[in-house]
Amino acid sequence: MSRNRFIALAALLIVVAGTAVGVALSATGADPAVAAARRATSKYQRLDVAISGRYDLLVDANKIACIDLPGTGGMGIHFVNGGLVGDAAVVAGKPEALVYAPQKNGQMKLAALEYVVIKSVFVPWNPKVSCAGSR
Questions:
Q1: What tens digit of pLDDT does each residue of 62-118 get?
Q2: Main-chain phi, psi angles of 20, to 5 degrees
Q3: What b/e string do you get for 95-107 counting C-beta neighbours within 10 Å, with b at 16 or more?
Q4: CA-based Rg of the chain, rounded to a whole angstrom?
Q5: Residue 127 pairs with which residues in a beta bridge?
Q6: Fewer beta carbons within 10 angstroms: which end of the chain, N or C?
């Protein structure tokens, strides 16, 4: 094996191992930020609690709540707290959006937390950050 090929393979293994560790920490909750977010949002396992907490159903222009791409799956059903979206803060226990996955029994299961900051609000606050390559 050539030296360059060996270095490339070693670098790839380091990246893969680092990614695997990061994913494992997040999945197990060993990451302190993930653990804090889980504790702070555990009440939102119940959709009625989210709705009473000012999270509203998000639909697209066609009034569709669960956007999917046939053959690849869906994103889930989003409930958004508009009061949180407009600020520049990202707080583990206060996600701007909660994503629920519909279950076979008709219930909704909390599947993801999303943290959303509008670019026009965030970039002036933190000009060193770029969004998709632009400032």
A1: 888 887 777 777 788 999 999 898 787 888 888 999 999 999 999 999 999 998 877
A2: -60, -40
A3: bbbbbbeeeeeee
A4: 19
A5: none
A6: N
Separation CA 95–CA 37 (nearest Å): 8
Token readout for 104 is: 């076979």
Spatial contact of 96 and 80, defined as CB atoms under 8 Å apart: yes
Within 10 A of 91 (CB to CB), how many other CB atoms are there? Answer: 13
Predicted confidence at residue 133, as pLDDT, reads 53
CB atoms within 10 A of CB 31: 14
Question: Which helix (H) or strand (E) covers residue 102, if one does?
Answer: strand 97-102
Model confidence at 123, pLDDT cuts 50, 70, 90, reads: low
| 4-40 pLDDT tens trace | 443 333 333 333 333 333 444 445 556 888 888 889 8
Number of residues that this document lists for the chain: 135
Amino acid identity of residue 4, one-letter, is N
Dihedral sign, CA of 110, 112, 113, 119? negative
